[in-house]
Specification:
Elements lengths: L5 E6 L20 E2 L3 E2 L2 H9 L4 E5 L5 H7 L13 E5 L14 H6 L2 H5 L5 E6 L2 E3 L3 H10 L4 E7 L9 E5 L5 E6 L8 E10 H10 L8 H11 L4 E5 L4 E3 L3 H10 L27 E2 L4 E3 L2 E2 L4 E2 L2 E3 L2 E2 L4 E2 L4 E3 L2 E2 L4 E2 L4 E3 L1 E3 L4 E2 L4 E4 L17 E3 L4 E2 L4 E3 L2 E4 L11 E2 L4 E3 L4
Parallel strand pairs: 1-4, 1-6, 4-5, 8-12, 14-17, 15-18, 16-19, 17-20, 18-21, 19-22, 20-23, 21-24, 22-25, 23-26, 24-27, 25-28, 26-29, 27-30, 28-31, 30-32, 31-33
Antiparallel strand pairs: 2-3, 6-11, 7-13, 8-11, 9-10, 9-11
Length: 422
């Protein structure tokens, strides 16, 4: 079998529970982003742009849409005879079948897959961040320092450092200590959850620690390598990197794409973001339509007004409807004369005529204020909202709702309306 210098293992099993109803039917890495992309397109595109052509994608939670999206990897040019992209769900083994219990356990269960490429190095990635990074530069740093483990780190403001795993390094960037979410941080270098391991070091650590429950990189594997005297180094990354783990950070990251000078640019020639594109007709804008500072996906028909919003593919926005500061995902239909403010609408949603979303005062959400906040309205996929309904802020709607589900056509701020049978 041909040797591969470095292969990547992409952890894409996460449910992403802080994205609320957006991930109740789909794994977080498969959630739409920036109109036509899905979150997992970013690490996959980084791989191919960095010359890493062998990627194992470890799936677990609701993998169907992710599997269909990745397919055999054609959009990323990862349909290779040797290597390419392989989706690796947990599988039935003869003696005992088990789910992936922790990040490192998922990798441990795929030792055979990695071994088949005889790699020198293994790159571990997470499938739920938005960023561009050249892993080749990180590998050069790893080799030049004679490291056995290199951890990508990002400087964060000192006052935020207690939210991260923090690396303490000497003047040569060798890691001397690390602290998981320290109350009194002694450094501001936060781990990004991106690691390069020498294959032998990784394999030995995984086999030695295999019985550890919920085997995890940050908690178990990296401390184990450190205790055994393996040289660990911190590779500093200073580009754009966004964890879109909450609805508000997901909304913000989408909104940043439409800044006049976007900090994260989807249009760079030399660092393309690849995705599986549906075959869609061109966008259509009627003579009455108005569009300002927005991304509009292919196949969308705009008859109303769209300001400062990210619109997916195949979306219809009816006459007289005004959409502001919102994310409308693919194949959603918005009726006529609606008002939509600061709303995230998932895929395949149908919204009637004369509907108002995101009006009135802010009230904390009654069921999950830690998820539904910042004045956002969130509508889950395939939901239906009937004509004439008005909806307040910090609300969530999921399911095929009818007039009977609303009090006099009104859902006050802070309310949760989730219909069963979804």
């Amino acid at each position: 079998m041909a040797r591969k210098e470095m292969i990547a293992m992409l952890l894409a099993g996460g449910q992403g529970s802080r994205l609320g109803v957006l991930t109740s039917k789909v794994a977080k890495p498969a959630v739409a982003f920036g109109g036509k992309y899905r979150i997992i397109d970013f690490p996959l595109s980084n791989c191919i742009n960095s010359g890493v052509d062998t990627v194992g994608v470890l799936t677990q939670y609701r993998p169907l849409r992710l599997n269909a999206h990745i397919g055999i990897g054609i959009p990323w040019d990862l349909d290779r005879n040797i290597g390419g992209v392989t989706v690796l769900p947990p599988y039935e083994k003869s003696e005992n079948s088990e789910w992936y219990t922790g990040t490192a356990n998922a990798i441990y269960q795929n030792i055979e897959y990695m071994e088949s490429f005889h790699p020198e190095y293994v790159l571990i990635l997470s499938g739920d961040h938005i960023y561009k990074m050249d892993y080749e530069l990180m590998l050069d740093f790893h080799k030049n320092n004679g490291a056995e483990v290199t951890i990508a780190v990002m400087p964060v403001p000192m006052e935020e450092a207690s939210r991260f795993g923090i690396m303490i390094t000497d003047e040569n960037r060798r890691i001397t200590e690390f602290e998981e979410k320290p109350a009194q941080p002694r450094s501001n270098l936060a781990s990004m959850g991106i690691y390069i391991f020498n294959w032998q070091t990784l394999k030995d650590a995984l086999i030695e620690m295999a019985d550890e429950p919920a085997l995890d990189f940050g908690k178990h594997v990296i401390p184990h390598c450190h205790q055994n005297g393996a040289p660990l180094y911190a590779y500093e990354f200073n580009g754009y990197w966004k964890d879109v783990g909450t609805l508000s950070s997901y909304w913000e990251a989408n909104m940043e794409l439409i800044d006049l000078v976007p900090e994260f640019n989807l249009y760079e020639e030399y660092w393309k973001i690849y995705t599986k594109s549906e075959i869609q007709p061109p966008q259509y804008f009627s003579t009455e339509s108005v569009v300002e500072r927005s991304i509009i996906g292919e196949g969308s028909n705009i008859y109303g007004q769209v300001y400062n919003s990210v619109i997916g593919c195949g979306v219809e926005i009816g006459k007289g409807t005004v959409v502001r500061d919102s994310i409308i995902m693919s194949n959603t239909k918005l009726g006529e004369n609606c008002e939509v403010y600061k709303t995230i609408v998932a895929e395949d949603v149908t919204i009637g005529n004369h509907v108002a979303l995101g009006i009135g005062e802010e009230v904390p959400n009654e069921s999950a204020p830690h998820i539904y906040n910042q004045g956002l309205v969130t509508v889950g996929e395939k939901s239906v909202i009937p004509d004439g309904v008005k909806v307040g802020k910090n609300t969530v709607i999921f399911g095929r709702t009818s007039e009977a589900d609303y009090d006099n056509f009104y859902l006050p701020g802070g309310r949760t309306l989730i219909k069963g049978g979804m």
